[in-house]
Amino acid sequence: MHDGSGRIAVQNLSKRFGSIAAVQNLSFTVEPGSVTGFLGPNGAGKTTTLRMLLGLVTPSAGIATINGRPHDQLGNPARVVGSVLENEGFHPRRTARNHLLVYAAAIGVPDRRADEVLGLVGLSPAADRRAGEFSLGMRQRLALATALLGDPQVLVLDEPANGLDPEGIAWLRKFLRSFAQQGRTVLVSSHLLAEVEQTIDQVVIISAGMTRYFGTIDELRKRQQPRVFVRVSDAAKLATALQEAGLTQLESMPDGHLAVAGATVEQVGDLALTTGVAVYGMHEDKADLEKMYFGLTAGQFTAQHGPPPPPRQQYYQQQQQYYQQPPQGWGGQR
Ligand SMILES: Nc1ncnc2c1ncn2[C@@H]1O[C@H](COP(=O)(O)OP(=O)(O)OP(=O)(O)O)[C@@H](O)[C@H]1O
Asked: Could you tell me which residue ranges the ABC transporter domain spans (predicted)?
């Protein structure tokens, strides 16, 4: 049987659909008590990965486990993991409560659980309305209620904020956090960092089916370096002075600015003054998580067809420093 840990482990997971490498050697873990974001642009392989985790797609290589077991070895999986995937279908003429009663019977939980989960997702007032009349946001809540029927230890949600209004998103955020605070596990996919940034503790970022970053969101924030952009009378002279002062991460921008990473405007201004170059303009580019996410996932479509052209290539390579190798010690491929 499974180990009851609430841990999700994805190890060297790959999936090919003919010539398309949808997922390539992906590895990450999701621990209980946390909300983990699973981020990547459209077509990055998120849904395919989640479907492999949930036993709906067979991996070409590698293994995805929940509680130490692949999905098909979980016994009564609805008691362990609840999931909401894209395009969940509901019988349009069935009421929300009836829909839940059918599922409750299928997984062997008492009927009263249907009303409990309707309450949990804020759908009690709509219990007797037909699902066909529901808005997209209400359907998302009903799908979540269905996932919660078995009182699972683990929740896996694919783009759950789709169709939710700002109030719905705020509600979902609070719900997922309190679910995780009970020592449960939440893995939530999105293609928008901003949508999940305030909800998640951990993040797995993928692009073109490969892991680009795996770690805490705080660590990701810390890795960002603000840059100072300066336009001067003699950029080469200032660059030499900056390097001598230990500020070596420099880049000449196409618009003539010199970008200096890890420096303050005061440092750059003072150095320009002592070096004797005139400053025509200067601004600081504050650390921006969204920009960094974009940098990590940029090139998804160019990477497979040769290197992207400069200056993007330069930027892309810079971002590689943020790439964090998955933890060592994974088992081999299955
Ligand atoms: N059943 C399938 N047959 C063929 N190709 C597939 C199949 N499912 C997914 N793919 C391809 O695998 C790649 C990854 O798709 P996937 O749906 O996993 O990405 P995603 O990150 O979930 O994207 P989105 O955010 O748009 O939902 C895409 O190129 C997609 O076209």
From this structure: 8-233
